[in-house]
Amino acid sequence: MKRVLLSIFLGAPVLMMAGGFQLNLQGLKAVAMGGAFAGVGTDATTVFFNPAAMSNLNHHQFTVGINIVDAHVSIQTPEVANTDQTSGKGTPIHFYYTGQITEKLHLGFLINNQFGSASSFDDAWQGRNIIQNISLKTFMFQPTISYKIHEKLSVGGGFVYGRGSFSTEKAIPVASSSTTEGKVRLEGSGDGVGYNLGIYSQFLTLGDDAKNTKFAVGIDYRSSITVDLSNGKAQFTDIPVSLKYKFPEETDFVSQITLPSVFTIGLSVKHTISEKWSLAFAYDFNITGWSSYDTLAFNFDNNDTPDSKQINDWDNSITHRLGFDFTYKEKYSVRVGLYQDNTPMKDNLVSPHLPGVTQVAYTAGLGYKINDKISIDFAYIRQSASRDDVSLAQYKVEDGNFVLENGEKVQTGDFKYKFNRKVNVYGLALNLKFGGTKKEAAASIE
Amino acid sequence: MKKTNSYLAACIVLLSLSCTKSQFDEYETTNGTANFSNYIAVGNSFTQGLQDGGLHNEFGQQDNSFPAIIARQMGTNFVQPTVSGTGSGYMHLEYVNGEIEVIKAYDIDITNNHPLAINYDPSFNNWADTNIKYNNLGVGGINLRNIYGNSSTEEFTYHVYLGSAAPAALAWNGVQGQPISPYGRFLNFGDINNRVQYIDHVRSCNATFFTNWLGINDAMSWAKEGGDDVSGSSLLTNLTEFREKYDTLLDIFQSMGAQGVCATVHDITQAPFFTTITLELLDKDIWIKEGADTTVIRKATNDDFILLSTKDMLTDGVGELQSNPLPHTAVLDKDEIVIVRNYINDINNQITASASSHGYVIVDMYSFMNKLTSGMNFDGIELNTKYIEGGAYSLDGLHPNTRGYAMVANEFIRVINANFSSTLKPVSLGSYRGITFP
């Protein structure tokens, strides 16, 4: 027997969920308010949330922030009572700049980590033939411009350059007399481009200067970005000699990761009660274009290594975001919010890596304006989710391809599990403003 | 104010910590209504843990026989007659000139053994202390009909097979006085004049709980030698006799008050021993002789099963010419396939009826193993009935490998839990060895 056909699928189940893969941590005022900001746009983070609202920001404004994502995920199967994910803490960062060039023209720039995920299990964990660990890191760079068409209407747009790097490991169930199983590690990096377009209108103001209510609406669309992993490397270890033609020590691969599009409509209402107090409310509605997902596909350079194809089985997901901001003397702010995150994964495709679930997460935050030039924001998110009935469908694979019958994939098994997921996110950001007089700066807060 | 602040800080810390505990509690294994304190497994090679055409334990093959896995999950003591070294000798894979080659076990009856063939270990001559009470009573090769004789002629025949007194030419190691099968020598079968029968060992086993997967060989011994619709060398056990002996066996368990489960016989014709060598693979016409008592010589069709054991014959060119067809023992022809499949259904009906009349639960291995034919996936590991590639069967193509036995154990555990309100944990198949590649 020269060629052994082994039913080993090298693709990675895409293992990422809206709340983990997509990092909704791009501005800490927004984070504290359930992530709603497309209709708010009161600081430099709007370069990301809605570039059109840059037109409301005077002078030169900077925001730099960091989050600590502390996730605790445990899984239970009928065979093993408890398995903890061993992933460390994530620390996504963001940097924003906006600058007013003319009365109508603003320029902006951002660097942030919009998508990312890192999860791992210990080497002996039961699902290691599905996934051992996976990590995705992205950096986005976005030069941006906005234009004030009318006192009440502005538009903005940015060109997005994204860099992504990806790695994953899983076990290969082949043993020799000296090994119990092999392992594959896939890693690659690449880049891609996209855009971010927004429109913003502060369409209605009721009341007078001292006591008023302002209504604004924003629409933003961030395109999908396809990161080409053209230089991927696959490394196989602990492979029996007789199977090395199939799983060589090293072979190249190409793959693509499509970061999904996000469409947002946001609404904000800010009610200024007196010189001392103001109350703001914001709501965002997101549609995230996950429908192009399910499996990461790999094409290997080595002919005998089974390529894996991509299966598209996810749904687009909808998120509702809601937040409140209470500000005293334009100096101290308290913010609370919540969001309802709907998992893009179909029930039977929830992966043990980053279990997705439709959940409500609660957010809170504080803002403190030290002076006209410097302010800081703190934000906190708490997520707690669990499910007892998750069943990861597994399909028949022949030489790297899913087997179909009557157009349907042939299901051969379930990875059944329960999970608990507890996440705390802590964020801290610094906002700086340069240029303009003290009086102008104070006025610009509105 | 300061005090309030520190209280507040303490509260926040406590809240955050309580938010990060995600662990599940450990499982507690409970016996439910079952008493697992003395678990006895009766059966044949599948129970003994035989694989790769032999009994060996170099990678824990015997330590992970399916009843041994079940016993571990029960947390009960389970004594097995384990072999050492190369055990009985067994088939293995070698990587020769860029190809994976199946090397048969060393065969004392032939002279042209492969130089790399693995022979039985010298220690296998004196294998196992017959004074020990074993929990695993699985004996390779045993048919249900062999458990006791209905006449002294039958008793003699079964004794020579399992116990002693075979002539040199038939004895497992070519030594006169040894039995034909080496696999029952851990039990004391007495001598040719004072015979002890297999059923006597069951009678004295004091089981509180048992698993019984006898019956496979009553179909398989016939089929793996190519069957024969008229006069095969090993007969399909007569159905009435089958039922009678099954009832007797369960009567014994019933009278000792044992709880237990009985497994049906799976459709052995779906095992790779029968399905691997296809005309498509050979890509030429093959001539076969239909049976011992016929003179019908015809071309094989896709409906005939050419046995895995025929590989060497095919390499030598047998079957290529009408004048030199494959012998009837090399092929389970299409009529014989129907016979053995019907027979398996018949004995399964008897097993089910007998178990139910004794109040014992059925583990439906017939249905379970059918699922393996279309493929099953466990924790990301795909298993099916393909030879070597399928990952569940051992190199002999008839017996599961360790991972396959673990899968079998899980099915038994599932049925035991469902019927005895116990909470035995199933095992993760990834921790059990599949095929060992060179």
Explain the overall architecture.
- The complex is a heterodimer of chains A (446) and B (438).
- Chain A has 446 residues and is mostly beta strands.
- Chain A contains four helices and 26 strands.
- The longest helix of chain A is centred in the last third of the chain and has 7 residues, at 438-444.
- Chain A starts with 11 loop residues before the first strand and ends with a helix.
- Chain B has 438 residues and is an alpha/beta fold.
- Helix content of chain B is 32%, strand content 11%.
- In chain B, α3 packs across α13 (402-420), α6 packs antiparallel against α11 (334-358) and α7 (239-255) runs parallel beside α11 (334-358).
- The radius of gyration of chain B is 25 Å and the shape is globular.
- Chain B starts with a helix and ends with a strand.
- The model of chain B has no long low-confidence stretch (mean pLDDT 93).
- Chains A and B meet through β2, β9, β21 and β26 of A and β3, β11 and β13 of B.
- β9 (175-176) of chain A pairs parallel with β13 of chain B, so a sheet runs across the interface.
Compute the number of helices of chain B: 13
Strand-residue proportion of chain A: over 45%
How many DSSP-defined strands of chain B?
13
Biggest chain contact: A-B, 56 and 45 residues
- Pattern of helices and strands of chain B: HEHHEEHHEHHEHHEEEHEHEHEEHE
Distance between the termini of chain A: 77 Å
Order of helices and strands of chain A: EHHHEEEEEEEEEEEEEEEEEEEEEEEEEH
Low-confidence stretches of chain A: 14-20, 441-446
CATH-assigned homologous superfamily of the domain at 39-83 and 127-148 and 197-430 in chain B = SGNH hydrolase
Q: Give the number of domains of chain A.
A: 1
**Which structural class matches the secondary elements of chain A?**
mainly beta
